[in-house]
Design a protein that fits this description.
Blueprint (H helix, E strand, L loop, with lengths): L2 E9 L2 H11 L21 E4 L5 H8 L1 H11 L10 H7 L5 E8 L1 H4 L4 H19 L6 E7 L6 E6 L2 E6 L4 E6 L8 H17 L5 E2 L5 H41 L14 H44 L4 H42 L2 H16 L5 H8 L5 H8 L11
Parallel strand pairs: 1-8
Antiparallel strand pairs: 1-3, 2-4, 3-5, 4-5, 6-7
Helix pairs in contact: 6-7, 8-9, 9-10, 10-11, 10-12, 11-12, 11-13, 12-13
Length: 412
């Protein structure tokens, strides 16, 4: 059975719009993350609504009146509330654009002529104009990708409308997807209309499985969360690298006086650098369970999509992208684990030195830090035993982990 497929994917920021534009217009030299794209076939792609510039530039052209209205309003706005047009768009809960995707089961396109594919694509665009209600000037770009396994349409629309602002009782521009697709129930009704329009034009297709868009909603949330997590990882890793670099520089400057027979000296700068490494390493550790949870979610989505694919229609591209993203996350996770182990080795040695050379307050603070690391599973019992051995905090820390040094048969 061949299925008619239509779905809608909101675009929330200008940066996301730029990335989607780069993909849809094939502006990259290679697509390693999607092996299904055959760039040698890109010349066969069909431009339904051409765009001769970048997506973001085209967006600004389509919404220039909205920008003028916004800029004028900002002239009388309080200083702490002033936002540039781009800042306002990116921080708004509304979308900046909506991507409409149209395709069908692979068998539907088998042996189909370019003329018939063009007819199918024109019917999809009729649906955009007549059923969804978009005007041609609201369509940023629409193209048929013929360089992947299954032909499909990417149609990016800007749902720019004028609405009554109840607060000021005036009409203002806004971008509102809900003016065209109110909710999931309405989307299901629109998918019925899409199928009816295709069948009325003579295309033999079945209506796609109702409710399958739930999986796509989950995927969008997953992608959003993975992007946030990726930014957190990059930021924290950079902070950690800088902290370690500062520590190494300070340790180097202390090299000549760091150790002798009776004492160890650590400068204030070095001590503060060590504490900074410890503080940031905790943040790295906090990201570990989030990363593993994200990986597990990706695996669930892949399995769900593969199951849906077997029952319904092809989702090869989505599955391939998910698998690639999941593999990248797994590699990131493995690197993070190695990094954490390296940092914990540094922290363990640092704590051990502090318990040997610090004053009473420093030793108290260090012992409390060791307990916190143990309680949060950053250290195991063998770590604590190694740090505490032959220090004034030995009994206190052994007691905290339940270790009796007088029992020979105790195993850590």
């Amino acid at each position: 059975m061949n299925y008619a497929i239509f779905r809608s994917e909101p675009i929330y920021t200008l940066n996301d719009l730029a990335q989607i534009g780069s993909h849809n217009k094939r502006e990259k030299k290679a697509y390693n993350s999607n092996p299904d794209i055959k760039l040698e076939l890109t010349k066969n792609n069909i431009e339904l609504v051409p765009l001769n510039t970048k997506y973001v530039k085209g967006f600004h052209e389509l919404t220039k009146e909205y920008k003028l209205e916004h800029d004028e309003r900002m002239k009388t706005e309080r200083e702490d509330r002033k936002r540039t047009y781009s800042q306002m768009l990116d921080k708004s809960k509304n979308v900046v654009a909506d991507e409409l995707l149209f395709t069908a089961s692979p068998e539907f396109f088998k042996n189909m002529s370019n003329r018939d594919i063009q007819k199918w694509a024109n019917t999809c665009m009729e649906f955009v104009y007549k059923d969804l209600g978009y005007k041609k000037e609201q369509v940023l770009h629409a193209t048929v990708h013929m360089d992947e396994k299954t032909p499909h349409i990417h149609c990016v629309v800007i749902p720019l409308v004028r609405k009554l602002d109840k607060r000021t009782n005036t009409e203002r521009y806004t971008i509102s997807k809900k003016q065209y697709i109110r909710d999931n129930k309405h989307l299901s009704e629109l998918q019925d209309k899409y199928w009816e329009r295709l069948t009325n034009k003579g295309f033999k297709l079945e209506r796609g499985i109702k409710g399958s868009d739930v999986e796509h909603q989950d995927i969008k949330e997953y992608k959003k969360q993975s992007r946030i997590l990726g930014k957190q990882l990059d930021s924290t890793n950079n902070m950690l690298e800088n902290a370690i670099s500062d520590l190494e520089k300070n340790m180097e400057s202390n090299k000549s006086i760091l150790f002798d027979k009776d004492h160890v000296r650590v400068s204030k700068e070095t001590f503060e650098s060590m504490n900074n490494v410890i503080k940031i390493s905790k943040k790295v550790n906090e990201l570990q369970p989030k990363l593993e949870t994200t990986i597990k979610k990706a695996e669930v989505y892949v399995n769900n999509y593969e199951s849906l694919q077997n029952k319904n229609y092809s989702l090869n591209n989505e599955i391939s992208n998910l698998k690639t993203k999941n593999n990248e996350l797994k590699e990131e996770n493995m690197n993070l684990k190695h990094y954490i182990e390296f940092i914990l080795d540094i922290v363990r040695e640092f704590f051990k030195k502090m318990l040997h050379i610090g004053n009473d307050k420093t030793k108290d603070d260090t012992a409390n830090e060791v307990k916190e690391y143990y309680d949060n599973d950053y250290f195991d019992k063998s770590d604590v035993k190694y740090i505490a051995k032959n220090t004034t905090k030995e009994d206190e820390l052994y007691n905290h982990i339940g270790y009796d040094k007088n029992k020979d048969d105790y195993e850590l």
